[in-house]
């Protein structure tokens, strides 16, 4: 699904560049290099910036809440959210919790 950058802070490009620089343009989990072939998947890598708290609408962004990740690691990090959204719909935000009894 495409990213809706209107929900991100206006200075997101600068934030993204700062995180990529901190990560030395490599995935902070597996070390895959940006714009190179992934050592495991052999696919072209475009690093993404993961919101570790899954709150991209919080514009009070601090660098410790962000991490540069390759597609593989980002999908692994968000796996439970993808499963929940498939089960409960795309409006699922992790806060809904129905009654058990």
Task: Provide structural commentary.
By secondary structure, the chain is an alpha+beta fold. It has one domain (5-88). It has helices at 12-22, 71-77, 79-88, and strands at residues 48-51, 66-69. The protein has a two-stranded antiparallel sheet. The longest helix is centred in the N-terminal third of the chain and has 11 residues, at 12-22. The relative contact order is 0.16.
Order of helices and strands: HEEHH
**Which percent range fits the helix content?**
25-40%
Count of runs of 4 or more consecutive helical residues: 3
Rg, rounded, reads 15 Å
**Domain tally:** 1
Number of strands: 2
Distance between the termini: 35 Å
What's the arrangement of secondary structure elements?
Layout: H1 12-22, E1 48-51, E2 66-69, H2 71-77, H3 79-88
Antiparallel strand pairs: 1-2
Task: Give a summary of the structure in a few sentences.
This protein is α+β, with helices and mostly antiparallel strands and about 100 residues long.
List the main descriptive attributes of the protein structure presented here:
2 strands; single chain; alpha+beta; two-stranded antiparallel sheet; 101 residues; globular
